[in-house]
Amino acid sequence: MSKTKQIAKKKVEAKKNVIDDKVASNNEIVKLIKIVLILCAVLLLFYFLTEFVNQKLNQNEYSENTTPTIQYSKILVGQILNRDEKEYYVLVEAKNDQYLDLYNYYLSSAKEDGLTYYTVDLSDVFNGNHLGDETDVDGDVSQFKFADTTLLRIKKGKVYKVYSDREAIVDYLEKLK
User: Fold this and answer.
1) Please, which residues bridge with residue 158 across strands?
2) d(Cα 119, Cα 151) in Å, to the nearest integer?
3) How does 48-69 read in b/e, with b if 16+ C-beta sit within 10 Å?
């Protein structure tokens, strides 16, 4: 083979390599662009799917103005004697007492006539250390113990009368009505 043929052959091969390199480069760039576009499409799909689900959830939420309110009639045991009124009643409610609705009915009826009453929930965590085997309301309020539902009549910051069983509470509340 002559040198010119070899040179020509090398030039042709070099041109082929250059073309192959360009084609390979173009193919890699095209593949990269395809991958980036697919990733963008998947991300956009998840974005719009998330927005759609959030809109559905927000439409289903109940959106009434829920302003927190302070429960003034429910107090803790430690607050039994420190109310502002000169005379009031405190219903200390034992857990699972089936007559609570009846007591509250009588008290709410009497409240319309100007009677002030408060409730103490013994199942509340803050009142847990005031549970006892017997009702004892002598001494300091921090030492009060309650075994069952009890109605207290408070006058001038002191316990005036204690009704500690169901019959006594119902009889007294019927007289108030």
Assistant:
1) 155
2) 9
3) eeeeeeeeeeeeeeeeeeeeee
Given a contact cutoff of 8 angstroms between Cβ atoms, the answer to whether 117 and 107 are in contact is yes
> Hey, what are 110's tokens?
């009497």
Q: Which residues contact 168 (CB under 8 A, 6 or more apart)?
A: 151
- For residue 153, give both structure tokens: 């009549």
Cβ(81)–Cβ(144) below 8 Å? no
Contact residues for 86 (Cβ-Cβ < 8 A; gap 6+):
155, 156
List the beta bridge partners of residue 163.
151
Range list of β-strands (E), the chain: 74-75, 87-93, 117-121, 150-155, 158-163
pLDDT of 15-59, one tens digit each?
Answer: 666 665 566 667 888 889 999 999 999 999 999 999 988 888 777
